TrEMBL record:
Chain ranges of the Photolyase/cryptochrome alpha/beta domain: 1-128
GO molecular function, one term: DNA binding
InterPro entries: Crypto/Photolyase_FAD-like_sf, Crypto/Photolyase_N_sf, Cryptochr/Photolyase_FAD-bd, Cryptochrome/DNA_photolyase_1, DNA_photolyase_1_CS_C, DNA_photolyase_N, Rossmann-like_a/b/a_fold
Name of the gene: phrA_2
Alphabetical UniProt keywords: Chromophore, FAD, Flavoprotein, Lyase
Cofactor note: Binds 1 FAD per subunit.
Residues the UniProt record annotates as site (Electron transfer via tryptophanyl radical): 313, 367, 390
Protein name: Deoxyribodipyrimidine photo-lyase
Pfam family, one: DNA_photolyase
Family, per entry: Belongs to the DNA photolyase family.
Amino acid sequence: SRGILWFRQDLRLRDNPALAAASKECDELLCVFIDDPQDQTISQLGAASRVWLHHSLTALQASLRKKGSELYFAQGPSQEVLEELISQSGAQRIYWNRCYDPVTIERDKSIKTALSDLQPRTFNGLLIHEPWENLKSDGSPYRVYTPYWRAAATALGKEPDRLQTLNMPRNIPALSDVAAQALAACVSLEQLELLPCRDWHESMLKDWQVGEDAAQAQVERFLKSAVHGYDEGRNLPAEQGTSRLSPHLHFGEVSPRHILNRLLLERRLSALSESETTFAKEILWREFAYSLLFHFPQTIDEPLDPRFRKFEWAEQTDEHLRRWQRGMTGVPIVDAGMRELYATGWMHNRVRMIVASYLIKNLLIPWQAGEQWFRDKLVDADLASNCMGWQWTAGCGADAAPFFRIFNPVLQGEKFDKQGDYVRRWVPELAEVAKKYVHKPWELDAQTRSGIDYPEPLVDLKQSRERALTSFTAIKGTK
Ligand code: FAD
């Protein structure tokens, strides 16, 4: 029979359950990626992610060609496109891996109904546990991470097979020439116009290798070396102490199953070292984010804690927001993070927390403004992890940091960027400043300060902290 394999957030050939099933059950397979303007998971993401997507699709196309197959592209509302493709190709079956954002869930449900004649088959290729699987004993979702992790780890102990991965299919059946020629609904990858007209993206990608093979290599590199010092290394933004797998995971170039499988190497979770366990927990944080998004879909743009709807944010914040976005707040570690993001499409997790706390608590700008900027600028922009990260920092999400815990960016810098190397790398204006002042250049003597072209702090850190606490006190006792 002839089938359609619809690629979405699973841009890989290995450990891809929908592809494995389709390759086995069909004699001919139409592999397609649809750029759907309504698709919240992929197409509505920002410019940096679309650049990554372009290169990831290029890599996937090359891998499929090596197997004698081809990746087709189409643009438009998915249901209409699929109906056209079915009528043009004469496909009798359809396969895809599930996504979990609310808009896509609704869209996919209606596609499943509309295409019921083809008996659509859907799979879990994105997560280890489906969002509806790892629940409390009363069937409700976890809102706190530690018990979520414990339950997930226990379940994995009982069902080690869950981490079994699927090999790359030996054969991916190609579409016959006749069927391929009838595909009038398809366009070229270039016609999707995922790359921006201006060429800023080339410098952004110079430190990245995109695609499934690169993701696999990065897993191996990280697991051989940095994972052993991860407990400490993951907090040091000047070091390469983390895996940098987030964009690969977001686009499904590698599965979390594969990563845990390679981490464990036949061991049980309980046999991992402390650093390895911390890393496994981070992989599961991502799953927790997907669970929250699934069970509390309103958290895409609303605080989970309803008291925060009444929170009094600052007025007239355009200039402050712009200075934060550009890395010109006058607070070195904040500016270093924002410039790293702008230049590379990525930011270290410790610094994500610092810049988010500064925006929300020192500048009193709603977390949604930061979430949107991240969504546009991150190559790993992910609805679930981004919303969770911002609400965690704001103190208004599930298992959030308490609002009164306000990061002091100077102390954070002095603790996690002791020598100031991270700041000097991204804020070259401070390259010559001594370690003692690199996180607080406003304390330099007036003469030295006047020789440095770097802004004064936008707000006083102590006063703005007090202001945030006062605003929080106003909503604290409310419901
Ligand atoms: P590693 O430390 O090597 O961790 C391995 C993997 O675990 C990551 O690739 C990621 O998939 C997962 N992970 C690690 N930490 C977290 C976490 N806190 N939440 C969810 N998953 C996690 N991550 C995204 O993937 N996309 C986002 O849009 C995103 N936005 C964020 C916004 C804010 C305000 C904050 C505080 C965090 C955000 N994170 C986001 C989480 C985290 O910062 C990144 O996943 C991490 O920095 C990616 O780098 P890495 O791959 O080297 O991570």
